[in-house]
Amino acid sequence: MKILLHPELKNQIAREFNTSNQNVLTSLSYFNNSQKAQAIRTRAKLLLQQEAEKVQIEKFEINKPE
């Protein structure tokens, strides 16, 4: 099991936690289970949720008659 995350978001997490990209990768792959690794996974989940909120199902908003 691992958390799939866009490389830009992995780089952002590495900067936020002042750690290496390798540490982020091992944390997202559940190889590490330190407190920092758990915090990295929590942050990754939050970023994924924020990305999901940006997804639009329809290109245009449909005006419903009142």
Task: Spell out the key features of this protein.
66 residues, mainly alpha, 3 helices, 56% helix
How would you sum up this structure, described in words?
- The structure is a single chain.
- The chain is elongated.
- Helix 2 packs across helix 3.
- With 66 residues, the protein is an all-alpha fold.
- 56% of the residues lie in helices and 0% in strands.
Strand content: under 5%
Radius of gyration over alpha carbons? 16 Å
Structural shape: elongated
**Spans where pLDDT lies below 50 across 5 or more residues:** none
Derived structural class = mainly alpha
Number of strands: 0
Oligomer: single chain
Can you write the helix and strand succession as a string? HHH
Average pLDDT number: 92
In whole angstroms, the N-to-C terminal distance is 48 Å
Helix content: 55-70%
Main β sheet profile: none
Number of helices: 3
List the helices and strands and how they pair.
Layout: H1 7-16, H2 21-28, H3 35-53
Question: Brief description of this entry?
Answer:
The chain has 66 residues and is mainly alpha-helical.
